């Protein structure tokens, strides 16, 4: 069965991912099982997506009840779960309005379009440039890969979209030197995920906000990976107290159902009027009903608190590993978005060995292990992984 599936996959699925030779069949909480019945503790969580763990009973129930009632009618009509989800996001963030879509890249597309339209509406036709950060990641569509500060993501897709400038992350002077009369927005991740788990200093974010205010530039926070509790607060911007004008969400919002959201303050959001932007599936009832339940579970079940505590414990244990193994160069992150940097490009090797021992971990940039487990992860599960890593290292 396993080999048949893998053989077929290698023939019919686009070859964009290199996958390990297992087929995952089911999941519960922080565990997944493959078709051979082998279990794994999941420190990837579908890339920071399944924050409540797999098959969370309340999310499953919300999804099934809504599926029974209404799947989809498009955005030509009002539906209840979409409005309730938007209200909950607005009540719990800086934002006044929400645009729903289906993925992170689409949320950033909406943010880029909204930022540009704000200035076109004011007659500032040449003010369309967006400043982004080196090592950033904003998605794989043409606009979002153009906004991404990594050459390898753009390779083969020239010409990329015009109008993006790049500065080093955590460097307010470089940003001050780049912001000009043609800049409409600055986009950044409060913690760079894909680019290697680099944390923005809160002093830096305050400087960025000041520079944006001074020049009338919009500030976009890409919280697609950091949002919905991952860093120990509902949104990462809440650590610094610096509010953006626009924020994008996706990954954990649906706990595995595809959903993206672009949130904005009224004075910015008002540039989107009837017909400005659209999507067939965005905010469809089934998906928004599940996401609404995700937010309720997060707020009612102390999960963000667990993330905060387990994140601190996890980092402490990884620092212990660092003290024992010279191959570990650095440990960094916030909450349960944690990176462990290795001295050589041995990350894939570590991933393979952990897989054999029943742990899913993820390697980015060749030598940075990114740990993004469900936010319900326990001390015992972290201890088990630490023991395994200690043996392998
Ligand atoms: C994952 C991610 C994206 C892209 O999201 P998709 O749903 O894969 O399109 C964009 N920005 C950040 C910060 C991400 O982590």
Sequence-ordered SSE layout with sheet pairings:
Elements: H1 2-12, E1 24-28, E2 31-34, E3 39-42, H2 45-48, H3 57-69, H4 80-91, E4 97-101, H5 104-121, E5 129-133, H6 142-146, H7 151-154, E6 164-167, H8 172-178, E7 183-188, E8 191-192, E9 198-199, H9 202-215, E10 218-222, H10 237-240, E11 246-249, E12 260-264, H11 266-269, H12 285-300, H13 303-324, E13 328-334, E14 337-342, H14 347-356, E15 359-360, E16 362-364, E17 368-371, H15 379-392
The chain binds pyridoxal-5'-phosphate.
Description:
The protein is of the alpha/beta class. It has two domains: 2-55 and 302-392, Aspartate Aminotransferase, domain 1 (Alpha-Beta Complex); 70-300, Aspartate Aminotransferase, domain 2 (3-Layer(aba) Sandwich). It has helices spanning 2-12, 45-48, 57-69, 80-91, 104-121, 142-146, 151-154, 172-178, 202-215, 237-240, 266-269, 285-300, 303-324, 347-356, 379-392; strands spanning 24-28, 31-34, 39-42, 97-101, 129-133, 164-167, 183-188, 191-192, 198-199, 218-222, 246-249, 260-264, 328-334, 337-342, 359-360, 362-364, 368-371. It has a seven-stranded mixed sheet with strand order 4-12-11-10-7-5-6, sandwiched between helices. Strands 1-2-3-15 form a four-stranded mixed sheet. Strands 13-14-17-16 form a four-stranded antiparallel sheet, with helices on one face. A hairpin with a 5-residue loop joins strand 8 (191-192) and strand 9 (198-199). The longest helix has 22 residues, at 303-324. The radius of gyration is 21 Å and the shape is globular. The two termini are 33 Å apart. The site of pyridoxal-5'-phosphate has 15 residues, from helix 5.
């Amino acid at each position: 069965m396993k080999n048949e599936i893998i053989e077929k996959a290698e023939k019919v699925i686009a070859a964009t991912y290199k996958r390990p030779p297992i087929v995952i069949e089911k999941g519960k909480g922080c565990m997944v099982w493959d078709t051979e019945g082998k279990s794994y503790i999941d420190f990837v969580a579908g890339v920071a997506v399944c924050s409540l763990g797999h098959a969370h009973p309340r999310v499953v129930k919300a999804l099934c009840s809504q599926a029974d009632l209404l799947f989809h009618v498009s955005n030509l009509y009002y539906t209840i779960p979409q409005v309730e989800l938007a209200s909950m996001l607005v009540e719990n963030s800086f934002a006044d309005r929400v645009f729903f879509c289906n993925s992170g890249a689409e949320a950033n597309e909406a943010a880029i379009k909204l930022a540009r339209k704000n200035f076109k509406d004011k007659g500032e036709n040449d003010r369309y440039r967006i400043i982004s950060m080196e090592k950033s990641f904003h998605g794989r569509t043409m606009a979002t890969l153009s906004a991404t500060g990594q050459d390898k993501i753009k390779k083969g897709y020239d010409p990329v979209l015009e109008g993006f400038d790049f500065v080093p992350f955590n460097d307010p002077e470089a940003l001050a030197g780049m912001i000009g009369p043609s800049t409409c927005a600055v986009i950044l991740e409060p913690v760079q995920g894909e680019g290697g788990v680099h944390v923005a200093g809160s002093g830096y974010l305050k400087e960025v906000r000041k520079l944006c205010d001074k020049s009338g530039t919009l500030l976009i926070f890409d919280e697609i990976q950091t949002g919905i509790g991952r860093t120990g607060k509902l949104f990462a911007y809440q650590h610094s107290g610096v509010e953006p004008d626009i924020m994008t969400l996706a990954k954990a919002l649906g706990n595995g159902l595809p959903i993206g959201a672009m949130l904005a303050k009224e004075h910015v959001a008002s540039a989107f009027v009837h017909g400005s932007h659209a999507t067939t599936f965005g905010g469809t009832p089934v998906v928004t009903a599940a996401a609404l339940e995700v937010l309720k579970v997060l707020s009612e079940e102390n999960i963000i608190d667990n993330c905060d505590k387990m994140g601190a414990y996890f980092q402490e244990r990884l620092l212990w590993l660092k003290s024992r193994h010279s191959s570990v160069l650095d440990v960094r992150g916030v909450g349960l978005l944690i990176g462990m940097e290795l001295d050589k490009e041995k990350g894939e090797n570590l991933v393979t060995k952990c897989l054999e021992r029943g742990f899913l971990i993820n390697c980015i940039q060749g030598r940075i292990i990114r740990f993004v487990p469900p936010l319900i992860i326990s001390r015992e599960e972290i201890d088990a992984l630490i023991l395994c890593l200690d043996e392998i290292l």
